[in-house]
């Protein structure tokens, strides 16, 4: 899927659109990167596979982040961490999720609701607390 999205120009179009939109806001790189992070993370709702999402969007979003002034190492690390964390958003977001959903452990509405709430906690911990720590130890 990622190959065809790229082949038919969707990824480059999307990247350019995001650069124009976020770059046109005139925000600092930190705020711009925050918007990109949220777009990257929550766009996972539209992908049936983590691998497809990462393959289609990771490089594009990293390019956009770098173009907007985000330190490249920080951008790559944050997107990599989020690529793992986004699997819990939906009942189809990661390989093991359909097994749990299919066994009726958690109803669909609860899964999506809890997934969203936990995603907020994850983002606060990983980017808030983690971001301060990464700055302290010199990662960016």
From TrEMBL:
Annotated compartments? Plastid, Chloroplast inner membrane
Q: Which InterPro entries match?
A: CitT-rel, SLC13A/DASS
Give one GO molecular function term. Answer: malate transmembrane transporter activity
Q: Which keywords appear in this protein's UniProt record, sorted alphabetically?
A: Membrane, Plastid, Plastid inner membrane, Transmembrane, Transmembrane helix
Regions crossing the membrane:
21-41, 47-68, 73-94, 114-134
What family does the database annotate?
Belongs to the SLC13A/DASS transporter (TC 2.A.47) family. DIT1 subfamily.
Under what name is this protein listed? Dicarboxylate transporter 1, chloroplastic-like
